[in-house]
Write a structure and sequence with these properties.
Layout: H1 4-9, E1 15-17, H2 26-34, E2 39-42, H3 48-61, E3 66-71, H4 77-86, E4 91-95, H5 103-108, E5 112-117, H6 120-129, E6 133-137, E7 143-144, H7 152-162, E8 167-170, H8 176-184, E9 189-192, H9 194-197, H10 206-214, E10 220-223, E11 230-233, H11 236-246, H12 251-258, H13 262-268, H14 292-311
Parallel strand pairs: 1-9, 2-3, 3-4, 4-5, 5-6, 6-8, 8-9
Antiparallel strand pairs: 7-11, 10-11
Length: 315
């Protein structure tokens, strides 16, 4: 398949693996890129020296394009971008901040820039900043979400009507049928996170992977809206948050409950009770931990099958 996304990134399939904290190391990124998609290293949970090591390992294990995701609120962001420029990373995905801060500098070094947004206002700002593409992420997605709580089904056509640059859909996409629906709404590629959490190459703890596979409908919830909305799996930590929110706890108390390194404790260290597990609604449909390459092929084959089915309909 050829479209603006595959041509922009130099990839076979318009399937992008999200740069998730604690889950998206070089093993996953290189596996997805080698399978024909675009793998992304999630830099948000890495110290600068760790990111440099991850990039070098990814370059050693794939000759295909890959990207690095950098949340713009990261405290040591200058060092991250120094490493990215020095190591000649071809593509950067930015999120959680103002894209105009770094886009021009990255593009001066020949780096393609993609920014993640959750509403039309920031889609327009990203376009004005000169990004090469945007990811429009609906509130079904795992991790941090837009305050508007706009679903992917509503968000993608709104963004498509607002901007003409290449558009990637994210949030609630875990198979080829959902990918096909996103394309019908105006997307030219999909970014998928939760399905790759439950891959063999994911750096997520095995407890987290198994919890994803065991999940049922309704096991995730969007919470901590007073601080920053985040979708996570219900567990003992979530119930502490729920109890505090029900008695109208203020931001300071909620921040204290959240504490430090909750996400690492859950997603990377596997503490099923006290850890934070950021993941999307779609996990209730996953039944097996699989190699990343198999996941990419399944999504693409399912997408192709769905397209053929739709083409066979008599109108």
């Amino acid at each position: 398949m050829q479209n603006r996304i595959t041509e922009l990134f130099g990839i076979k399939y318009p399937i992008i693996q999200a740069g998730m904290i604690w889950c998206s190391g070089w093993e996953l990124a290189s596996a997805v890129s080698n399978a024909g998609g675009l793998g992304i290293i999630g830099a948000g949970s890495m110290y600068p020296d760790i990111l440099k090591e991850q990039i070098k390992k990814c370059k050693a294990t794939t000759s295909k394009p890959f990207a690095v995701n950098v949340p713009l609120l990261y405290p040591d962001i200058e060092k991250h971008f120094e490493t990215i420029i020095e190591e000649k990373v071809p593509i950067v995905f930015t999120s959680a901040g103002n894209p105009s801060t770094w886009t021009a500098k990255l593009k001066q070094h020949g780096i393609k820039v993609v920014h993640v947004i959750a509403n039309t206002k920031f889609a327009l700002k990203a376009k004005d900043a000169g990004v090469d593409a945007i990811v429009a992420e609906g509130f079904e997605a795992g991790g941090h979400n837009g305050r508007e709580e706009t679903t992917t089904l509503c968000l993608i056509p709104q963004i498509r009507d607002a901007v003409d640059i290449p558009l990637i859909a994210a949030g609630g996409i875990g198979d080829g049928r959902a990918m096909c629906a996103a394309f019908a709404l105006g997307a030219e590629g999909v970014q998928i996170g939760s399905r790759f959490v439950a891959s063999m190459e994911s750096s997520a703890h095995q407890n987290f992977k198994q919890r994803v596979i065991d999940s049922k409908e309704g096991d995730t919830v969007l919470t901590l809206k007073q601080l920053t909305p985040v979708r996570l799996i219900k567990n003992e930590f979530y119930r502490q948050v729920e109890e505090a929110e029900m008695r109208a706890a203020n931001k300071e108390e909620l921040a204290q409950i959240l504490g430090r390194a909750r996400a690492k404790k859950g997603m990377f260290e596997g503490d099923l009770k006290e850890g934070e597990f950021e993941v999307g609604q779609i996990i209730s449909t996953f039944k097996e931990i699989k190699p990343a390459a198999e996941i990419v092929e399944e999504i693409w084959n399912d997408f192709s099958k769905t397209i053929k089915m739709l083409n066979s309909l008599r109108l």
